[in-house]
Design goal:
There is one protein chain. This protein is 41% helix and 15% strand. By secondary structure, it is α/β, with parallel strands linked by helices. The strands form 2 sheets. Strands 3-2-1-4-5 form a 5-stranded mixed β-sheet, with helices on both faces. Strand 4 (91-94), helix 4 (97-111) and strand 5 (123-125) form a beta-alpha-beta unit.
Length: 263
C-alpha cells in the first residue's frame, strides 16, 4: 500500500525514551525509528543505549528501563554512526518531536561534535496535526484514529509504530491536509527563510547573520566574534536551542558561519 503522503526524500518517524524530560540535559535510553522511503518501503530500527548516568526511579516507573537493563548496552557515541546513517538525508516525524525528540537527538549529536542540522530537514509533528484536529495525547489518538487501545504506551518502539499508524490515519481522514512533506512542514510550522534556526533567534539581515533577540538584536555575529566573544560563550553554555548554540560554537572554535539562504 502506497504511503498517503507524497515524499521526495525519506521520512523517519521516531520516538525517544530518556532519563528525564529536559531535552537539552537528559540522555537517550531508547531510540526507535521507522524509516519510510519515497516508494513507501518501511524499515524499523531500535537502539537501547547506556546513558552514562543513573536513570531516576521516577523515569523507570514510566518506561520500565533500569540501569541494569542498559548496563551492557552501547553509549550514544558508540551507536552514533549507525543512528546517523539511518537518519541521513531524511525528514523527521514523531509525536511532540519538535519540542522533545528532535532537540534531544540534536543534543546527543552535539555532545560528540556533530551537527544534526534539524532545521535543514522538514518536520511533521503528528501531535501538531492531532492538536489542530482533535486535541488529545498519543493514547487517545490511537483510540480515536485507529479504534484500539495503545498497548505498550511509553515504550519507544510501540510509540513510534503507533505514531506512524496515526499519521497514516490522519492523512486518510483529513482530505484538506497537505499531500507532500514540504507542504506539511510549512503547514504545521510556517518558515521564514531568513531565520537561521526554527525559533528565529538568529536571523539573516542583508546577507549578514545577526542576533534577533535582546539588547543585541540586529548586531552581526561576526562583529560580536571580534569584540565580545564572551557573549558567544554565554549562548553556547546557555539553554538556547541546540542549533543556535552549534552556530555560535562553530564561530568560536572554527571561525565559520553557515552560508546565507538562497531567497
Amino acid at each position: 500500500m502506497a504511503f498517503p503522503l507524497k515524499l521526495d526524500r525519506p521520512l523517519v518517524v521516531f520516538d525517544i525514551e530518556s532519563t528525564g524530560v529536559n531535552a537539552h540535559a537528559d540522555r537517550i535510553i531508547e531510540l526507535a525509528a521507522v524509516r519510510v522511503e519515497p516508494d513507501g518501503t518501511e524499515t524499523t530500527q531500535c537502539w537501547l543505549l547506556n546513558p552514562g548516568v543513573p536513570i531516576p526511579a521516577e523515569t523507570t516507573a514510566i518506561h520500565g528501563i533500569t540501569d541494569a537493563i542498559v548496563a551492557n548496552c552501547p553509549t550514544f557515541a558508540e551507536a552514533a554512526d549507525d543512528i546517523w546513517k539511518f537518519f541521513e538525508g531524511c525528514d523527521l516525524s514523531g509525536f511532540n518531536c519538535d519540542r522533545f525528540d528532535i532537540p534531544c537527538l540534536e543534543e546527543e549529536f552535539a555532545r560528540i561534535g556533530r551537527n544534526f542540522g534539524a532545521s535543514q530537514r522538514r518536520h511533521i509533528d503528528v501531535q501538531r496535526i492531532y492538536h489542530r484536529m482533535e486535541p488529545r495525547d498519543l493514547s487517545a489518538a490511537v483510540q480515536f484514529y485507529l479504534g484500539r487501545d495503545h498497548a505498550g504506551a511509553h515504550g519507544a518502539k510501540a510509540d513510534a509504530v503507533a505514531t506512524l499508524d496515526v499519521l497514516k490515519a490522519q492523512l486518510g481522514k483529513y482530505e484538506a491536509l497537505p499531500k507532500t512533506s514540504a507542504e506539511m512542514d510549512e503547514y504545521l510550522v510556517p518558515h521564514d527563510p531568513l531565520n537561521a534556526d526554527r525559533q528565529g533567534m538568529l536571523r539573516w539581515v542583508n546577507g549578514e547573520l545577526c542576533v534577533n533577540f535582546g539588547k543585541k538584536k540586529g548586531t552581526r555575529l561576526k562583529d560580536i566574534f571580534l569584540r565580545e566573544k564572551s557573549y558567544l560563550r554565554w549562548i553556547v553554555n546557555g539553554s538556547f536551542d541546540t542549533e543556535v548554540r552549534q552556530i555560535c560554537r562553530d564561530l568560536l572554535e572554527k571561525g565559520i558561519l553557515p552560508p546565507p539562504p538562497k531567497v
